[in-house]
Amino acid sequence: MYILGISCYYHDASAALLKDGAIVAAAEEERFTRKKHDISFPINAINYCLKSQNITINDIEHIGFYEKPFLKFERLLSQHIENFPLSLKTFLSSTPSWINEKLRLVKAIRKKLKYKRDIMFVEHHMAHAASSFLLSPFEKAAILTVEGVGEWTTTAYGLGEGNNINLTKEIKFPHSLGLLYSTVTAYLGFTVNNSEYKVMGLAAYGDMNKETNPYYEKLRKVIDIKEDGSYRFDMSYFVYQYKDRMPSKKLCKLLEGMVRKSESEVTQRHKDISAALQLIYEEVLFKILNHVYNETKCENIVIAGGCGLNSVANGKILRNTPFRKIWIQPAAGDGGTSMGAASYVYNGVLGNKRNFQLENAFLGPGFSTERIKNFLEKNKIKYSEFKDEEELIKTTAKLIYGNTVVGWFQGRMEWGPRALGARSILANPCNQKAKELLNAKVKHREKFRPFAPVVCEDDASAYFECGEPVPEPTDFMLMVYPIRKEWRNKIPSVTHVDGSGRLQTIRRPQNHLYYDVIKEFGRLSGIPILINTSFNIRGEPIVCTPYDAYKCMMGTGIDCLVMGKFLIKREDNPEDMWDSEKYAKD
User: Would 177-324 and 369-577 be classified into the same CATH topology?
Assistant: First the structure.
């Protein structure tokens, strides 16, 4: 039985394919269209999923969609009516897309896919909950979903057991922890639904002490937090409920300044505001989680929703709550809901027993040696070929040890926003200048942005204060942990200003080449850790195809590309010969 999950029309459109209960393919639409956070109908992602199994749309028995459009439209109409006439401009600009597209989803699916069978609509937070619990290793677990907003719900919790998910409590729009984070993200001059993680990283440069950070008390004025973690906003500080922008004049006055202009200087005030926001987010999150534990008496917790990507808070959960085990899927945000919708249809609606655990994120397109070689030959790109895997591993590790920046393109593409060793840029964490080099010449991004360390799971506790056994979300780079003090000066390019690192662990069965390169680098350097950052430049999605990878290398300071069995050096392929429009893409 094949079930297709779809999410689209808000942000991070995606598709996921489930075969007899197991996820066999999944990808975000942005990877194919090269439009970051693409919202459009995910026709390319769907076609990839079908092609991966050599099936057609006629083989799909059910389609699950990640929300209920009419319920969401009800909320939008309600908020526009409630805030009329202030909401008139936003209503007039947003309504046509609903009338012409979003409310006609069934027609769109039938027309674009020529699909004639069942289409099932799953409530948004149920899709989030299913994407976490039904794919987790737990037979029973508490569930928490936290994000901007679904149809009405912004925060929900409950319990999952076997096939069943019961979300028992919720907080509804306009009160939203995710929208608070997004509002301050916009105030700080960053892009909403894209750059919240930048604010999370910036927070470490600010004052993370409630007693001394002046903006903590200021921001606390906008939110009333109860002991059980429930909260309400003073909505006079917000305008997102009726405008197409987020920070209000009253919020700007509270934070002592106007919205920061994009690309302008990031001051200490901005850093302290980021820290205050992170403090409040963590305060609410831990109160909710402690309450959820008291309600469920379950030691396992799964988390989903965009806020599930807040890796700084995630790394503190087991230390600040009674939970003993945690699991978060790699695409915790809206991109992951296509997977949740498909799983909920199979397990929840159809009642099939769970028989699958998501153990790795390598669910996207892969490219055979023949296809990669054909791309290189067709475009007259100079390359060399490794004679075997041992040579590939040793050469790559030696290049990185010599401070070469390596584009790493191996196997199937990752699912979710983090590069996890299939489409990664790898570099030497011991190199004091690596962070500056990568930010300036490769990623073209802000200087304060940290880089993530990757370490083999069996070495993790020697370098990071992450406990044993290492929590599984570290496989998906979803936890920040302190780096042990004796190693911080030895791996400066992955040590954040507060002594932490956004840790990724890798287990050999997940990706043996990646694992072995890290181990070989450790034999050369004495420290089996690499810098792992996403294979892309600022403002673009992670690369998907050989063409994307080569284009990214030629447009940046990446020194070479290890793609499949081939080594491509930028110095052997002069930039004046590179014309992206003339190159055959596949």
Answer: no
